[in-house]
Amino acid sequence: MNTKLPLVLSTLLLWILIFAEGTIIKAQSAVYEKQIDADKIANTSFERTKTVKAGLLHVGYAEVGPKTGKAVILLHGWPYDIHSFESSSALLAAKGYHVLIPYLRGYGTTTFISPKTMRNAQQSAVALDIIKFMDALNIDKAIIGGFDWGARTADIIAALWPERCTALVAVSGYLIGSPKINKTPLSPNAELLWWYQYYFATERGYKGYQANTAAFNKLIWKTASPKWNFDDKTYERAVRAFDNVDHIAIVIHNYRWRLGLAEGEKQYDELETKLAESPTISVPTVTLEGDANGAAFPPPSSYRSKYTGKYKHHTLTGGIGHNLPQEAPEAFADAIVEADVMARVY
Hints:
With 346 residues, this protein is an alpha/beta fold. It is built from 14 helices and nine strands.
């Protein structure tokens, strides 16, 4: 009997295991390094935004991921900015998506081309900004995602320009409205959540927001996401976007227009007429909600019928508030990928 054979086999098996373990570690390291690189690129892109002339605006935007990848456009709300998508965009870039995150009118490095243009923030004007942004960058179609103002804008694009929207991810679902719809009073508890809207309807509110923008918006962050323990550095990165020369005018007009207290512009009347009919959305859609959203939001059951194509809804647990993309970036990025997969088999 050859007594050396078991020893040889044991040694061989040991070397196989060592080699296999080394291969796995190298693979894991490669994935980790790829994510680190994506994060570094995202950080640089968000601090050094690009600008493109689009419609009435010079639109400031961050761009991450390969330009050959599938286009994804992510839209922020009030009082937030593009940094809400800093982590989720890095995750998507690492998966090969071409991610663009524009500042909405009145925020960050986005500015009006002409001082004569009305500082109008009615919903169709904001949505048309994004269509013009896509045109300027020669983007035919994109997966569009957003929250707050951004979700409403994404909903509008999906409803009125479905040929430009590959798939949709909307936090808090269907947010298209109209001044006429908003004339209907809500329950006292629901009205309480809109206190700032009524404050902005007054001259005192205009002056108060102008004098205390940073403190006001930090209060909204806290009340809208009561379980999100963001630090000062996180808020300070966003607060710079509110220094935009048109920010106050845009925010005040938006909320006054919703209540029918401020006029829009006739050039948007046709679009607003369509939106007042609460159009359905046929593109593949994923809606998201957080279990600790302290802002006003509709229950998912109330808007399910508005999405007539492939559809999924996820309510995130763990204390996720209104700024869902920043509070749960992995889940938001996963929703973009999920919507993309739904579109591929649409």
